[in-house]
Amino acid sequence: MNYDLLFALTLFAFVSSATPGPNNLMLMASGANFGFRRTIPHMFGIGLGFAFMIFCVGVGLMQIFDRFPILHTVLKVVSVVYLLWLAWKIANSAAPEGEVNTSAKPFTFLQAALFQWVNPKAWTMALTAITVYAEDQSARSVFIVALAFGVVNFPSVSIWTVLGQQLARFLTSTARLRTFNWSMAGLLILSLYPIFLT
Predict the structure, then answer these.
(1) Which residue range forms the structural domain that includes residue 62?
(2) What is the DSSP letter of 116?
(3) pLDDT (tens place) for every residue of the chain, 198 residues total
């Protein structure tokens, strides 16, 4: 891969990873509710899980979806149902005044990695990255694309976790935290709109 293409790939990886989407909205909510340190496994799960997903898409998964178009529909339905469930969990993660919500926990590494497979934005990013930046669709080219995302992703998503953590200073009452969580849940549902355009 030449330097110009690598630079363009890195820029695409940063911009697409740092812009709003389900991953970043969930990280901001996690940063606000659980803090930066407890959200680190979630961040690493996104970075490494997405890099692995790109590699799988690039070395053959894309051809399977082309051969069996019904899988696109199945993926859409699963994505919508799962994201609606996550939105409900986020919306209801604030404990009543004076109580601690012991059932609310940040995403684990594995949960965040597996989430990439039902994240509509992740699929769009992966397909675009492979189509545009994997020069010859070889395993080596696909690996370079996946590696670029793996390296760039953590600093990109950290921004959202820090933003959430800083917002926690304002979210000092249950009412404010509940309003924030419901807002994040609403935005997460809103992020589903690309599914209904395809």
Answers:
(1) 3-97+106-192
(2) G
(3) 788 888 999 999 998 898 888 899 899 999 988 999 999 999 999 999 999 999 998 888 767 777 887 877 787 787 778 778 878 887 777 555 544 455 678 999 999 999 999 888 888 888 888 888 887 778 888 999 999 999 999 899 999 999 999 988 887 777 887 888 788 788 777 766 666 665
The domain total for the chain is: 1
Q: Distance (Å, rounded) from C-alpha 93 to C-alpha 88?
A: 9
CB-based contacts of 81: which residues, under 8 Å, 6+ apart?
A: none
For the chain, how are helix, strand and coil distributed in percent, rounded to 5? Answer: 80, 0, 20
In a domain, 13, yes or no: yes
What tokens does 10 get?
């890195």
| 198, part of any domain | no
- pTM over 0.90, yes/no: no
For residue 24, what are its two tokens? 């970043």
Instruction: Classify residue 27: in a domain, yes or no.
Output: yes
* Owner of token pair 């000092």: 172
Alpha-carbon gap, residue 183 to 107, rounded angstroms: 19
The crossing angle, in degrees rounded to 10, of helices 3-18 and 120-133 is: 170
